[in-house]
Amino acid sequence: MARLKALSPDEATGKTKELFTAIQSKLGVVPNMMRTMGNSPALLEGYLNLSGALAHGKLGAKTGELLAMAVSEKNNCDYCLSAHTYIGEKLAHIDAATLTDARNANSHDAKTAAALQFATILTAKQGLVNNADVEAIKAAGFTDGEIGEIVGHVALNVLTNYFNNTAKTDIDFPVVNAYNSVEA
């Protein structure tokens, strides 16, 4: 059962209503995570702004979805695993096996695998990576800007993972559970 209330788009007012209207026009629906974030228009707007900015980055939508899978698995976020599995398959056209591999920070593409491994190292070390970690991602062919984007994607997904794990957001996508899912 959800710990934080998901607002109804019909009942939203002010800035939240404005954001919900924009989300509805873009996605055709306001997902429960965003409806719950709507309790704080500042949080919802910040999430949307960072997500939108990263969507225009050099890494691309597919890599962004794969990074989301790796980080969400590391953080045991069933909501995000469910959402990104759906988005990955239906919108980014990523096959199920690739999405499953990403949950384990694996990819048949060496450069993508390096990005996923760096993201999980970054998550596990809470951002306190060492010189060897950064040199490894550079050796895989990533520029400083692309490394910055990986950090941005990790931060965005840590935000949504922690938010959904705190809120116990009702999953409104086909359910995917973390391998080590825990009931808190």
From TrEMBL:
Q: Which residues form the Carboxymuconolactone decarboxylase-like domain?
A: 41-89
What keywords are assigned to this protein? Answer: Oxidoreductase, Peroxidase
Task: State whether keyword Oxidoreductase applies.
Answer: yes
Coiled coil ranges (UniProt) are none
Which InterPro entries does this chain map to?
A: AhpD-like (IPR029032), AhpD_core (IPR004675), CMD-like (IPR003779), Uncharacterised_peroxidase-rel (IPR010195)
One family name in Pfam for this protein: CMD
Q: What terms describe the molecular function in GO for this protein?
A: peroxiredoxin activity
Q: By what name is this protein known?
A: Peroxidase-related enzyme
